[in-house]
Amino acid sequence: MGSNSEVARLLASSDPLAQISEDKPYAEVRPRLYFSLLDQQVGGRDSSVKGAELWMGSHPRGDAKILDNRISQKTLGQWIADNQDSLGSKVKDTFNGKLPFLFKVLSVETALSIQAHPNKELAEKLHLQAPQHYPDANHKPEMAIALTPFQGLCGFRPVEEIVIFLTKVPEFQFLIGVSAAAQLKQSLSQDPEAVTSALRSCFSHLMKSEKKVVVEQLNLLVKRISQQVAAGNNMEDICGELLLQLHQQYPGDIGCFAIYFLNLLTLKPGEAMFLEANVPHAYLKGDCVECMACSDNTVRAGLTPKFIDVPTLCEMLSYTPSPSQDRLFPPARSPEDPYLSIYNPPVPDFTVLKMEVPGSVTEYKVLALDSASILLVVQGTVTASTPTAQATIPLKRGGVLFIGANESVSLKLTVPKDLLMFRACCLL
């Protein structure tokens, strides 16, 4: 993916000296962050996975580095530790003096794993048991907001849809087993508790299938779909194109069959999905802004070369089916600012603000908040000024600004083109 990813384009625009390695298909990038500048680091990750991540925050695995020689601290985490008032009083007290969120841009070309994130109780347990795989004790609710058409799997489909796939995809039913499949069909006329039990049984049967049998059934399905496509037949009723795509990326992987359990969403730019604890999901393709609690805990079970933990995933998941449209998370319009949209999920750790300012506006005032925040410029060119800054700060596409709590920022548009920005913060 390399320099063609949205992450690379954002980074190259804001920092012409930045280098993206074309021979490392998946990279994590730590940006230059203005409050002062923060250095970027590019590192290879999962050589079989194509994509890139731009990290903006103070997580120990990606603590942004400070370039400004006038500042003694070397990372954002260190600076916040020494400047606690920058968090805001409520944030400082609630989150023990830590920045509670991690802000990212993701560019996905190869599907990212079938996964879910633990709640706090489970995160603490997993971190204690296996810190090498679960690096912290925090939960990781997250939100993805599309920058380009963004495809992902999210939450369990309505049972009626899964039952149709069991009928149309015999290879899928073979792995589920006759008994579990029958239980799921019977649950259609039963209460939600029966549905949950049947869905748990079916998904667990699939994910715990013997590898050899999975490969055999997947090869049969791929051959059947390929033959039908070659004959000019449309196989979208069983997600044929997606199945072939995932099999090409992860041959013989059990995660290929997860498309028959999980809702398939394609977000339009500006649309979002919120992923609370225990919701199964996978990002398949596209670019998005992502915000989450400050954690790197992920329980995986397929479509990945990384560590997988099938028993934990099957045990922890929320087996609550819902239509795909229910997974969308619409923003609210600000009553104070006509250019501001607010994505405010039902967790205290983070909120994302989207600002779309027309190029005809010459100056835009960024709302002062009682929270530290990180501002990302996706489109447009401005100069930022604050009462505390010694000089104005030029920002363009890919520019990132750290804003301390209760600090007012004025942006002057230096080019009369529309401005698109996202801001992560904590609204307690």
From TrEMBL:
Residues 342-386 form the Phosphomannose isomerase type I C-terminal domain. GO terms for molecular function: isomerase activity. Residues 175-262 form the Phosphomannose isomerase type I helical insertion domain. It comes from the Eukaryota. Belongs to the mannose-6-phosphate isomerase type 1 family. The keyword Signal does not apply. Isomerase that catalyzes the interconversion of fructose-6-P and mannose-6-P and has a critical role in the supply of D-mannose derivatives required for many eukaryotic glycosylation reactions. Pathway: Nucleotide-sugar biosynthesis; GDP-alpha-D-mannose biosynthesis; alpha-D-mannose 1-phosphate from D-fructose 6-phosphate: step 1/2. It is an enzyme of class 5 (isomerase). Keywords: Isomerase, Metal-binding, Zinc. This is Mannose-6-phosphate isomerase.
